[in-house]
Description:
The protein is an alpha/beta fold. 42% of the residues lie in helices and 16% in strands. Helix 4 links the parallel strand 3 and strand 4.
Amino acid sequence: MGSLKSRLVAGKVQSGIWLGLGNVASAEIAATSGFDWCLIDAEHGHYDIATIAAQARVLGNDACVRIPHAESWMIKQVLDLGLHTVVVPMVDTPEQAFDLACAMRYPSQQFPSGTRGIGASIVRASGYDHDTDYMSQANDRVCLMVQAESATALDNLDAICATEGVDGVFIGPADLAASMGYLHDLDAAPVRAAIDNALERIAASGKIAGCLSFDAQRAQHYVDKGARMIAIASDVALLSGAMRSVPRPKA
């Protein structure tokens, strides 16, 4: 079926799950549950590089990871683990986006501005030097999804989409709503309009549009507006919801 990146670039809708429990067993269950992708949420989940590595071994190279912050050294570590798709939170400007794109790629003729450090022969990404083509193919394999989560990011959205090396833009509805003055109110008309408009603009730019909703109808709405990478569940929400809904015997 090709890589997640190739499917998204081809315009296929890919539905995924957010993993925040930091548990290898729950990640393994998620990986066998029919989702198109699984995301290791190292921004809010209790992950360090060791727990990310453990889940990468279970999920495979097509897993996604959201790093805690827009830092090049974090990108280097997760790419060296062999993960291809990196989601970066709170990206507000095209300058930030370009710095991240450079960190994702080795310097090459096609991308001379690349700043990714070279150590492929000793890391998991190359199978510890088993994949001798890794370095020549890595720049094409990786996928950078920057998150637009503020009013400032939406003001700069067209420029962010036009940034070389940015593969897609993922809207963060909750933080965007808060930035617009509507904390905990994703139903506010200005928020819904802003998300719809952003998804349409990202899709029109030719970049991958992403969004998140655990409500099936709203997730479908985002897809109708152009989202192709859509998060529809989280391991935390599924587990807590299932536990709380278990019928209790009556006395």
